[in-house]
Specification:
The protein has about 325 residues and is an alpha+beta fold. It has helices spanning about 1-20, 25-30, 35-50, 50-60, 105-115, 175-195, 195-205, 250-260, 300-305; strands spanning about 65-70, 70, 75, 80-85, 120-125, 145-155, 155-165, 220, 225-230, 265-270, 280-290, 295-300. It folds into two domains: about 1-25 and about 170-305, PAS domain (Beta-Lactamase), CATH 3.30.450; about 30-165, PAS domain (Beta-Lactamase), CATH 3.30.450.20.
Length: about 325
């Protein structure tokens, strides 16, 4: 049974790698990280030439040159006051420093800090525009997005974002597709082999659920107790429910709540051991195993963009 399951897992991961690669070059050419950055930098150049007032008016217009279906520019000042957004005009003029996505990520404050450091990529959860607007209250419409922010002039900055599934919502970048299948394979293994065997396998640094790129599974009980991890054996059995990141977000609590609601994506900040434990945005995917515990995995944003985004304190 063990070898049969191993074969299934290998096939799943190989299929994920194939699905992530086929067509990704074509998709990235139309809607990948480079295209997103170019879009924002072009808007920043426009702001520099047209001036703040004209640029804000242009960015806030749903019929403007910088609003193209799901592609649009938003603008904030350095106090996180929304200056322009073609699909959320009702929030223009409001202080959004306290706004978080549905998993608690303070997206606007992070965007401001990245822009202040010269600009860069970020990730977050947010709805797509629909019927000429965005309903931030519709939790079921939130999806992972890749964003880019850049200073637009003295005291203000701009940004934009695209769905993380670049190819019209059908194809995730290869690391993300691999992550999803790794988590699904872990749940299947736990159901087939039992919790004890699964937790032992997850905690094995040479086991089935650790790959050569540094990806792995971790497992928690719903009270926030770590019960399996291949690289943190000293913390297994420790309750980490109150652990906070550099922005004060209770990461383990947010991950646990996501799993309790049935699982899915979450973006959080976590030290990257390959970069000297520098804090980095990480796209996570979690699933419940049963009523007692859940498991998950994650992909650092730099694995998708090829760049390291500056964060507060780094």
């Amino acid at each position: 049974m063990r070898y049969l399951l191993l074969g299934i897992i290998v096939c799943l991961l190989a299929a994920a790698a194939f699905s992530g690669c086929v067509g990704q070059e074509e998709a990235a050419a139309a809607a990948g990280p480079e295209a997103l950055r170019s879009f924002v930098l072009d808007a920043a150049d426009y702001a520099g030439s047209a001036g703040r007032e004209a640029a804000i008016e242009e960015f806030g217009s749903i019929g403007g040159d910088y609003t193209r279906d799901e592609w649009y520019i938003y603008a904030y000042d350095n106090e996180c006051i929304l200056l322009a957004h073609p699909y959320a005009v009702e929030f223009v003029g409001s202080d959004r420093s306290g706004w978080t996505d549905i998993r608690g990520l303070p997206v606007i404050r992070i965007g401001r800090d990245i822009a202040a450091a010269g600009g860069g990529y970020l990730a977050y959860l947010y709805p797509r525009p629909a019927d000429g607007g965005i309903d931030e209250g519709a939790r079921e419409t939130y999806e992972p997005k890749l964003g880019y922010v850049h200073p637009a002039g003295e005291g203000w900055w701009i940004g934009s974002g695209i769905p993380l599934a670049f190819d019209d919502g059908e194809r995730y970048p290869e690391p993300v597709a691999m992550m999803i299948d790794l988590v699904s394979a872990g749940v299947s293994y736990a159901h087939a082999e039992g919790s004890e065997a699964a937790l032992a396998e997850i905690s094995d640094p040479d086991g089935l659920f650790v790959d050569g790129e540094g990806h792995y599974l971790y497992a928690y009980r719903y009270d926030g107790t770590l019960i399996a991890h291949p690289h943190l054996p000293e913390l297994i059995g420790t309750n980490l429910i109150e652990k906070e990141d550099i922005y004060g977000v209770p990461v383990i609590r947010s991950l646990t709540e996501t799993a309790r609601e049935g699982g899915g994506f979450i973006v959080f900040i976590w030290p990257n051991p390959k970069e000297g434990n520098r804090d980095e945005l990480k796209i996570g995917y979690v699933l419940p195993v049963d009523g007692e515990w859940w498991l998950g995995s994650g992909v650092y944003l730099s694995e998708i963009t090829g760049e390291h985004t500056p964060l507060a304190g780094n």
